[in-house]
Amino acid sequence: MAAMRAVYLLRSAAPRGRCRGRTYVGFTVDPRRRLRQHNGGRRRGGARRTSGRGPWEMELFVHGFPSDVAALRFEWAWQHPNSSRSLLAPPTRRPREQPISFALRLLPRLLRAPPWSRLPLKIRWLRPPRPALELAPPPHVVEEEWAGLPRLKRRKRRSQEVEVENCGCGLCGEAQATPLLRCPRPQCTMAAHPPCLARLFLALEPLQLLPVGGACPRCHTHLLWGDLIRRCLGEAEPEEEWAEPDDIIPSSAPT
Question: Was domain 156-245 assigned CATH 1.10.287.40?
Answer without folding.
Answer: no
